[in-house]
Amino acid sequence: MSEGGNKKRIRLIVAYDGTNYQGWQLQDNGNTIEHELNRALSELSGEQIQVIGASRTDSGVHALGNIAVFDTGSRMPGEKFAYALNQRLPEDIRIQRSEEVAPDWHPRHCPSRKTYEYRIYCAEFPMPVRRLYSYFTYCPLNADQMRRGAEYLVGEHDFKSFCRTGAQVESTVRTVYSLEIEEQGPELVIRICGNGFLYNMVRIIAGTLMEVGQGKRTPESVKETLLAKDRAAAGPTAPAHGLTLVKYELDL
Amino acid sequence: MSEGGNKKRIRLIVAYDGTNYQGWQLQDNGNTIEHELNRALSELSGEQIQVIGASRTDSGVHALGNIAVFDTGSRMPGEKFAYALNQRLPEDIRIQRSEEVAPDWHPRHCPSRKTYEYRIYCAEFPMPVRRLYSYFTYCPLNADQMRRGAEYLVGEHDFKSFCRTGAQVESTVRTVYSLEIEEQGPELVIRICGNGFLYNMVRIIAGTLMEVGQGKRTPESVKETLLAKDRAAAGPTAPAHGLTLVKYELDL
Fold first, then answer.
1. Residues B11-38 pLDDT 10s
2. Is B152 found in the same domain as B93?
3. DSSP letters for chain B
4. Contact check, Cβ <8 Å, A129/B244
5. Are B138 and B45 a contacting pair, CB within 8 Å?
6. CATH number (domain holding residue A233)
7. B125 Cβ under 8 Å from any chain A Cβ
8. Does one domain contain both B234 and B178?
9. What is the three-state SS of A182-236?
10. Options B17, B28, B58, B230, the catalytic residue
11. I need a surface site. Which of B86, B136, B220, B243 has the fewest CB within 10 A?
């Protein structure tokens, strides 16, 4: 199927259950989403293909629609790759859509809006069917207090306090467009939409807002945490399995 | 912890993810929910304990609240069993509540109302995080047509057409209190509440209503299917993993 010569760039929307993966990014040992995509694409095309991912999610994090691109000499129409790849991928990874894009289109150099959900199952005992997708706590959470704390994070801010120590980034300024706290029965959903997120930023925000919900810190302390520009001022990093990348909007 | 002498009866509300089990009921080979409960209870009490289950769900079916009882000479207060058992159960089984009941209380000789949900994920491609809890189909479903067909099943009827052939039951008459078709984004939920269900009844209803939704049969044909009292008149048995026992109401 390899043709050589002119290559074209294909964009994939990739959904996965992160439970059984060491995250997105290739690692020396451990199975990753990127590894599975490269393997399936190389099998399909006969070329050595390396995808470029938009959001390099951590081990255990899920996605309904992450983005990846790759270049290929294959003559297969862009929209057919979804069908062909899904036949070669394990059932916990499924391409939702594939299409040809401009040869210089890059998922990380493109204005985008990402939406993450952090789910907390709050009850006396865990619920087995939610255990892989929602963080369990038996500590009651006050959603209204969490909403009040969340308000301080909306807008353009320096989120240095909410970034994992040692992460190398040029700027820790990001814009959060919205941050909603929604109650769905015993499950509480923290839904955050922004132009980009620092390493562990959503999980540190979730860990901090959970402390607000438990009365361990005040809603107003979230503002102080933001101003401190110090990771130690924020709450713990909430566990990965509660986090899902739900939407990735491109070409805004 | 075993005391001998007077025994008391404890009722459990049991939630489980059925993915990794051969159903509820003890089998010669294969892991079952009943086996895990008996093992954990016997470890805990030092007695040989056999639970009696209310709904013997099939392999792959999930439950948010199935019911079981057992007799024990243990002096542990009824409500403490939930905590002690959860420490001895695998994480895909969790007791939601435990309490002492009358010594002659029996989960299958007690007026009750059960609610099941059958979930169908209807889209071009499967969604990995829903794959264990929702049946995938790429065939579009007309929810309004399914609702029209569902209406014929509400009330007291002989559901012989919706019972697996060869099932031994005294009567195939059951009462369906409600049957709702709810759209939750790409997921369609068939929610059925009744005083009891025949073997495979919910899955055969789901399979039949899916054929209505796909235009393979008319809504009116559901009435004819009911009157036929013949399993061959109904649609296929929908796959087990889409089914969840969501509520079990007792002592009405």
1. 999 999 999 999 999 777 779 999 999 9
2. no
3. ----SS-EEEEEEEEE-GGGSS-SS--SSS--HHHHHHHHHHHHHSS----EESS-PPTT-EEEEEEEEEEE---S-GGGHHHHHHTTS-TTEEEEEEEEE-TT--TTSS-EEEEEEEEEEESSS--GGGTTTSEEE-S---HHHHHHHHHTTSEEEE-GGGS-TT---S--EEEEEEEEEEEETTEEEEEEEES---TTHHHHHHHHHHHHHTTSS-TTHHHHHHHHT-GGGS-PPPPGGGEEEEEEEE--
4. yes
5. no
6. 3.30.70.660
7. yes
8. yes
9. EEECCEEEEEEEECCCCCCHHHHHHHHHHHHHCCCCCCCHHHHHHHHCCHHHCCC
10. B58
11. B220
Cβ separation of A17 and B91 shorter than 8 Å?
no
Please indicate, yes or no, if residue A2 is contained in any of the structural domains: no
Which of A94, A128, A131 faces B126 most closely, judged by CB atoms?
A94
Domain-located, residue B107? no
Q: Alpha carbon of A118 to those of A65, A154, A179, B122, B171: distances in Å?
A: 15, 16, 11, 24, 48
Q: Indicate whether this complex's ipTM tops 0.85.
A: yes
In the prediction, which pLDDT does A252 show?
63
Q: What is the pLDDT of residues A196-233, one digit of tens each?
A: 999 999 999 999 999 999 999 999 999 999 999 999 99
Calculate the alpha carbon distances from A234 to A119, A145, A231, B110 in Å: 19, 16, 6, 53
Kindly state the tokens that stand for A99: 């299409």
**Nearest CA of chain B to the CA of A97: how many Å?**
9
**Percent share of chain B, pLDDT over 70:** 97
> Is A230 part of the annotated catalytic residue set?
no
Q: Is the pLDDT of residue B243 over 80?
A: yes
Does residue A129 sit at the B interface (CB-CB below 8 Å)? yes
Of A94, A128, A131, the CB nearest to B127: A94
In a domain, B3, yes or no: no
Backbone angles phi, psi at A122, to 5 degrees: -115, 105
Q: Are residues B86 and B175 in the same domain?
A: no
Number of domains in chain A: 2
User: Minimal Cα distance from B90: which residue of A?
Assistant: A128
The model's pTM: 0.94
| A215 belongs to a structural domain | yes
Interface test with chain A among B94, B134, B241, B244, by most A beta carbons within 10 Å: B94
Based on the fold, state whether residues A54 and A155 are members of the same structural domain.
Answer: no
For residue B144, the enclosing domain spans 112-250
Alpha carbons B139 and B159: distance in angstroms, whole number: 27
Shortest CA gap B246–chain A (Å): 11
